[in-house]
Each structure stands twice: as structure tokens, then as C-alpha cells.
Amino acid sequence: MSPANRRSWLDRGIEIVGWAAAAVALLFQNPYGELGPEADRFLVLQALALVAVILAVIGAARRSAPAAQPAQPAMRALPGLASSPIARWALALGGAGALAAALSVDPLRSLFGAPPRLFGFASELALLLLFLLLVPRLASVDSRERWETALLAATGALVAYALLQWAGLDPLRWQVDWQGRPTAAQGNPLFLAQALAWLVPIAAGRAVCRWRAGEHRAAMSAALLAMLAGVVLVRTGARGPLLGLAVAALVFAAVAGLGSTFARARRAGKPAGILAPLE
Length: 279
Known about the structure:
By secondary structure, the chain is mainly alpha-helical.
């Protein structure tokens, strides 16, 4: 296998780890856990981040070999990400978290988190590492399309599970009864609502893009997913995420309107329509 093929295989491996992390964040849950609904999920995400780091280190070692070909953009070294503004933000956030954990009253608890959630700097660091490793591998349109497709597939499974709970067909018995409010695999109606408030605009954006591309069947599927996710979000009864989704919908409508050829033509013709009777 040539060095280029090895690098390509490692890139695909890291990309698959990213898909798995999205699925774990949305779908993984241990209803019988003693520490809380998120503790096991954070542990799995940390393990996935470790796998991604190992793959990245192997890729860097192969690139440094004498027979290696010039590195592709998708396999840039981690320090090279400092040129990206969003990566600099992530590095600054990680540095602030490390400093806060080191100077806290209980550094060990700040690192690993306190029961029952166990969300400490170790979990935050795992998420940041996954982000930094995935950023250069989402530079192309195809890679972003694959990532979006994987995310929407997990969203479909999340919404389907929430609808089963709403219908009273949940096969699991959860420790907390939320009186008919769906939680899906998030363990809490508020957590489910927060996830959906972020996912609904992504599904709606996919619907608009596919419709403009003439792929009407795919557009209708994405629109149906966005609508069902919105219905489940309303059913959770969480007001904060609903307000957030309302703001996102307004921003989405404004951006979609600015990007519409028909809307631009209509806005350009409106002043002419007002001035026409004055002639």
C-alpha cells in the first residue's frame, strides 16, 4: 500500500470516528446507569477521541517517513490549524479550560467531573480534540455532505425513538418518569430539546439546498425530518430551546431569502412598482 493510500485510509478512519461521535452524542444512553444519564456517554466520547488521536499520530509518523509523499491538506499537522480562526477559538477555549482546572479548588474533580454527570475538563478536551482533528477533514464539499448525512441519519433515529416514547411504546424502563414528555436517548426532555434546536436548522438547510438542486425527493425527506423534529421539540415542553429555535428560524429565513434569486428580483422590482404610478 502506498503512503498516499495509507494516509487516505487514516483520514477515512478519523472521519468514521467523527460520525460515531455524533451518533454517540445523540443516541447512546445507559438507562440503568448509576451515575447519571450522561456519564457513560462522556466516557465513550473520550474513548473515541483517543482512537482519533492514535490514528492522527500514525498518520503523522507515516508522513515523516523518508518515502512519504507531500502531505495532503486533509492531513495537516495539528499546529498548522493555528492559521484557522475557528481552530484558534477552540485552542483558546481548551487553554482556558486547562487553566481553570489547574487553578480550581479541587483540580482532580475539575478534571474528571463530579457525580452524577462526570463532565469535567477531560470530557471537554475530548470534544475539542475531535473538533480539531475533524476540521481539516471537512474542507471539501463532499466531506461536509457526508458529515451532514451521517448527522441527519442519527437525527432520524433520535426523532423516531422520541415518537415511540410519545406513543407509549418505549421498550426501556427509565429511572425517571417525565410524565409523557419524550426524552429519546438524551435522558431528559430539556437535553432532547437542546439537541433538536440545533438539528432542525441543519435538516431545513438540507431541504432547501436539495430543492434548489432539483433533488425534490431528498428535499422532501429532509423537510419531513425537520418538521417531525420540530413537533417533538414542542412536545418536550422546554421553553428555552423553543425560543432558541425561533431565533434560529428567523435567521435561517433571512439568510435563505438573501440567497434566493426570486427574492432578490422581487426586492429589486418593488421600488420600480412604487415609482411607476408617479410617472
